[in-house]
Each structure stands twice: as structure tokens, then as C-alpha cells.
Fold this sequence. Notes:
alpha/beta, 15 helices, 19 strands, globular, binds 3-isopropylmalic acid, leucine biosynthesis
Amino acid sequence: MGKTLFEKIWDAHVVKTLDDGQSLLYIDLHLVHEVTSPQAFAGLRFAGRRIRQPNQTFATMDHNVPTDNPFDVRDQIAKKQIETLIENCREFGVQLADLDSPHQGIVHVIGPELGLTVPGKTIVCGDSHTSTHGAFGALAFGIGTSEVEHVLATQCLWQTRPKTLRIQLEGSLAPGVTSKDVILALIAKYGVNFGTGHVIEFAGSLIGTLTMEQRMTICNMSIEAGARAGLMAPDETTIAYVKDRPHAPRGREWDEAVALWRELKSDDDAVFDTDIVFDVSELSPQVTWGTNPGMGSGVDGTVPSPEDFESSVEQRAVTQALEYMGLTPGTKITDIAVQHVFIGSCTNARIEDLRLAASIVAGRHVADGVRALVVPGSKQVKRQAESEGLHEVFTAAGFEWREPGCSMCLGMNPDTIPAGERCASTSNRNFEGRQGRGARTHLVSPAMAAATALEGHFVDVREFAAVHEGGVAHGTAR
Ligand SMILES: CC(C)[C@H](C(=O)O)[C@@H](O)C(=O)O
Ligand code: SF4
């Protein structure tokens, strides 16, 4: 019997397996940020240990960074975490994309950008959206702070072998529908737990048509389906993306690596624990109406009623969600007005996301009463966007143009939404209080966020001329 992609990477990294099924995995890349690392470094220091492989450890700061002025950290806890990361990296010899580094940015944006993320690697970070890196055919998952310490000290990690789930994405996306809509629709259909205990391999004919950035958006949110990780087999698009990036292999090492990467795919006769086929051709742009990423519908839909759901557990969850969100069943999604729009986060703050949003707002203006923010995912994304003049398109339209960081994705820095107000957000989580106490988050694609900012309420981006003129085909607008 053949092997799945996951099994190939897993088997190549197992150092030893115990009778109870736990395996010790070798970790190729350990990404670190300021929020989940302080106790881990403190533990190392306490035990008098050093880092096993400092060259395979890379740190950045993102969650706490104020995006109006990164050097003016007003919050004392944030300041302490940022300073502590700087000290820890110095003491333990870890490479750090500091606030003044040209490489600083959201950890899941900079890993791929710098060529740290490559096919076949095992990648961990004390952060759930580490699943993003799976788009390269790397086995990448989030770990807790005590595991961060374990990996720092040993470069290994104990894990139970997850099950495998394949999702075959078939068909092609309509103009204005993006990979963000694919993952939101999948989670809306199957729920936030369907991936629990599994590593998802996204396969099917759609993947080959997507850019790396679009693929990352899907893998980023596989964690919101409950999965341990999301994976996609590397192909020529992956290889072209990685080539010549600062940390990518070079010369003979590159040739050898590419030869191995071309073998990294599930064998034809590989068997998955679960197999799903999902047709994307009829998808509409998605908008979440509730308080988990699975509570969503097409923009052409309406807010559901608790009675539309079968189980009493779901009915209660929906009742509570609608109350928190201040929504009435039957309301058209397009009748929901927003006061804030956030284009950013590790899900959708890469250059293609910004190009797509800019193509929609170009020459137009943000609606009255709407505050709109664009927060590039990294310094590199920001530089690239500015070299293309995108910042001018955004600022002329009334958007704020910020410095890189997690920003409004979560309320750990000054960018928050006031209680009771509504935000169309390109991020990945819409939990209660996620963007600030009492804040109401609606998850959407960058195209939808841009269109919503202009109208002041949700609107079907497929009605925008830019979508049809410039070929805003699932997010590749230039
Ligand atoms: C702060 C961090 C631990 C957290 C995570 O693990 O995902 C954050 O990045 C998030 O998106 O909620
Ligand atoms: S951008 Fe949001 S989801 Fe991504 S790492 Fe930061 S807080 Fe987490």
C-alpha cells in the first residue's frame, strides 16, 4: 500500500516510537514569537540549558506590535514581552527579525517569504496558525509553550500520530470568489470540528490553479476546522516560489532538494482515513454571521434562525451567537452595516491580497462612518506594495496604511474594535471578544472587505466591475 504525503514526511522525521504510540519527531524549523516564548526561554535558563539548534530557530515579533508606531509600545505587558524576546534571542543566539529589521512581520508571513518554509520540513511554532506553512508540503503545526521549551532544548517533540483526511477541491472559482471563500465555505458546511485529530491534505484540481499565497490562506484556516495541520503537495508553483529566497537551498543543494520535493506527494494507492470531495464552482463570496468560523453563509444568503438547525446544542449556540452579534434571523447579509474594515492578518495580508483589495477600491472612497485599515503582513509586503503604489490607492480611498503586525486580528495591541461595533475582517477568527471586548467580527475575503468598506455594508463583490475587467480571478489581480 502506498503512503500519503503526511506519512512520508512523518516517517522521515520519527526518531523513535514508544509502545503507547507516541513518537519523537525531529523538528526542522522552529518559529518563535514574543507571546508564547518567554516562559520557554525562562525554563531553559532555569535548567541551565542552551538551544539545541539555534540555526533552525527563527524569531519575529508580531502580536503585540502597535501598527501606528511599532517603537511606541504603550502597553506594559506588550513592552515586556517584546524586550524579553530581544534579550532571549541575544542570550541564546537566535536569529530575530527585530522591529527595525527589513524582515519583521507576522511569523506565518515571513517564514515562507524568507525561504525558511520549504517542502518536506517539520515546522512548529507556539501558534495555532502554523498550519499556514503546510501549503508548501511541510508538516507544520502549532505547539504549546512547554513544547516550545522542549523543542528549543532538544529540537524534537513528542506527538501522537494523527489520522489523515483528504479534501479534494474540484472545479474552478468564479471571478470575485477567492481561496478564503473556499475554506470558509468548507468550514460552514462541515463545521469547526470535522478535522479534529486529523491532518488534512488538500488535493484536487483546484490546487494547481492557485498561487502559493492563495494556498496559504486555505492551510492557515485548516486549524479552524479543528485539524492538527493542513497540507498540500508541492508542485512547480511551490518550487518557483521558494527559489532564490534568502534561506532557500542554493546550487547543488537546491538541485538535490528539488529532486526530493518532486517525490513529495501521496501515492495513487495511498489510503486516507477519510476522503471528501468538495466542488468549488458554485461558491459565492462568504461572510460569517456568528461567533465561530463555521457560522457563515454566502453573501447572497440571510442570517439563519436557530430553528434551521437540528440539534438543541446547535440551536443554543446559534441563539447565543446571534445575540452577541446583534443580528436578527432573516436579515439579508447585504443589509448588515459595518463600522470597521480590517484588511490584514496571517490569513490575508500578503501582496496578492493587497493587490486584490486595491483593484477594487481604486478611484473610489470608503463610505461615511467606516474606519478602514490595511495592515501589511510583513515589512517585505509593505515595501512591495509601496513600490507598486498600492498604499496611495488605499490612502486616497480613505484607508489607514499601517506598519506590519497582527493588528486587529486579535485584541493584543492598540488596534481594537469598540464593543457593539461591527468589523468586516480578512482574519481567521470571529470568536466573542476576539477583536476587543464586545466587538462583532465578520470574516470575509480581501475582495469582500474592500467592497464592504466602500459601501458601508456587505455587498456582493461579484457586482463590482473591477472583478470582471481586471481578471480578479480568485485573487490574482495585478
Ligand atoms: C497568541 C497566539 C498563541 C494565538 C494562536 O496560537 O493562534 C494567536 O496567534 C491567535 O491567532 O489566536
Ligand atoms: S495574524 Fe492573527 S491569527 Fe495570525 S498569528 Fe497573528 S493573531 Fe494569530
